[in-house]
Amino acid sequence: MTTARTADTFTIGLVQMRCSADAEENTAKAEARIEEAALSGAQIICLQELFRSEYFCREERAALFDLAEPVPGPTTERLGRLAQRLGVSIVASLFERRAPGLYHNTAAVLNPDGALAGVYRKMHIPEDPLYFEKYYFTPGDLGYRAFDTPFARIGVLVCWDQWYPEAARLTALEGAEVLFYPTAIGWHPSEKEEHGAAQADAWRTIQRGHAIANGVYVAAVNRVGHEGGPPGGLEFWGGSFVSDPFGVVLAEAGRAEEQILVVECDRRRIEDVRRNWPFLRDRRIDSYSGITSRWLARE
Description:
The chain is of the alpha+beta class. It has a single domain, classed as Nitrilase/N-carbamoyl-D-aminoacid amidohydrolase. The chain is built from five helices and 17 strands. The protein has helices at 23-39, 74-86, 165-173, 189-214, 267-276, and strands spanning 9-16, 44-47, 89-99, 102-110, 116-121, 127-128, 131-132, 146-148, 153-156, 178-182, 186-187, 217-221, 224-227, 234-237, 241-243, 249-252, 259-266. The strands form four sheets. A six-stranded mixed beta sheet has the order 5-4-3-2-1-17. A six-stranded mixed beta sheet has the order 8-9-10-12-15-16, with helices on one face. It has a three-stranded antiparallel beta sheet with strand order 11-14-13. α1 packs parallel to α2. The longest helix has 26 residues, at 189-214. It is globular and about 50 Å long. The mean pLDDT is 96.
């Protein structure tokens, strides 16, 4: 069991795992890993993106919409009971069925009382080979949000959101002390040898940059394993990690194995970094109106 919030620290847990085609098997595995993380001291535990299934966006197939469920719904109720039993908060990435023909990639935050603290709907939706997300997901319409847990105020963004500094900034400005990024990112096997190392390094670097620019903790949790069958499919590169507010990596998972990370975060580090590197103080908010334009260079 975890303890109540202390004045200075909170402890986060990330569950990096391999998924099968069986939603019940994946959900049961996630529950067991959450319990393991909680027993290791984690207070806020985040699952990877779309943890209940394989990453189905590798193909466009209408029958796969059957994987979706309402939020709140069966999985949030199930995880809410677990959160209450363990005394933890849980961040769970789900395929939300909002209405007939209207679906979102949604992260739910559940608190230790079992209640739904809120949801975030993925704002940036990719469309690339084997990442056909625009076929399935409507872009989020709730904006960038932070949620109160008994342990910390947290922000949640999802996968493709992690490349956008605007998303990280706006969530930090909502008072988030840590940004969670549930993720499903991997290599096309044919590209791994030439581009794999650079791609994974860019992914890690951009998120460390969000931590530095905003003076917050960043916690990214990815899946592992090959999905889609050789020679095609995707090989998910794992590498889940936690960065402190100045980009120092506090813990990092391997590329291929299932793993749980449990990391204590000290909110005094946020204060210390922001005092010495006062990026929020020195922002020229009067000069940023152009950021809402698609392009500024004159044709």
